[in-house]
Amino acid sequence: MNSLKKILLGDQGLVVIFAVAFAIVSLTVPNFLTERNILGLLQSVVTIGIVACTMMFCLASRDFDLSVGSTVAFTGMIAVIASNMTGSIVMGLIIALLSGALVGAVNGFVIACFRINALITTLATMQIVRGLALIVSDGRAVGINDPGFYQLALSRFLGIPTPIWVMGALFIAFGFLLNRTVFGKNTLAIGGNPEAARLAGVNVVSMRIWIFALQGLICAVAGIMLASRITSGQPNAATGLELSVISACVLGGVSLAGGRAAMTGVIVGVMIMGIAENVMNLLNIQAFYQYVVRGLILLIAVLLDNLRSTASR
């Protein structure tokens, strides 16, 4: 019984649970397995999936970032505004990516150097960055002048939309970074025991700054894709994204206590979040209930994290 419990609470158990749930949904929900719906499902989780790649590193190092939703909206705005002003999409994208990395680096610097709690720091940044997005746009959506900007989200390769390819590439890249590089091993070491990692020669301060800078950079990628998909820069976009991303990561086995993470689990967590919302849409369930479901998923994710921590002792 104990061995079965450990399997079910591990990464393999999560994949099995996901496979069973996917099979049940496929058999009971009309039109779920159609090509159009599956592609729509994958597109709907692109923003969560992209941001989850680096939120995984934040959580694995005993930190988290509540400012990701605001950063996604802000960098999307910056990409559109900079592209319109310079007349160059490439320049707009570069400025947006740098802006996102800067926001993340500021978060990491304050948390690591001033030893301020990540909750307070990123909660403050969430408000500041959202406010900047509203100030820059005067509280209104900003239209895209160059139709070429739309192609970032509308273009396809082998029949699959480009944002899905981007998400898949980032899953692979950050999975490799976590499992096959010193950076990933140091991240897990910091999450396991920051003081022991420091004594082992890991520059904990520098690592935390780099992790948050990466978080901001990837938020900018998600912001650019989102702005292209909704065909404008929206200062109120991605509201509540942080909770969905954290839920997906924790549901996927990333420990809130740090030191444990797996990209396969995060992918499954992201897909569970997307399928839950997709099924409700197919069944014509009112959008209000989606808030309840997201909250329940977050509670379940925290409960599973607690059970995993207890089982690993």
UniProtKB/TrEMBL annotation:
Keywords, sorted A to Z: Cell membrane, Membrane, Transmembrane, Transmembrane helix
Name the record gives this protein: Ribose transport system permease protein RbsC
Database matches in InterPro entries: ABC_transp_permease
Statement: the UniProt record of this protein carries the keyword GTP-binding: no
Coiled coil location: none
Source lineage: Bacteria, Pseudomonadati, Pseudomonadota, Alphaproteobacteria, Hyphomicrobiales
GO molecular function: transmembrane transporter activity
Topology with respect to the bilayer: Multi-pass membrane protein
Main subcellular location of this protein, as a coarse class: membrane
GO cellular component, one term: plasma membrane
Compartment(s): Cell membrane
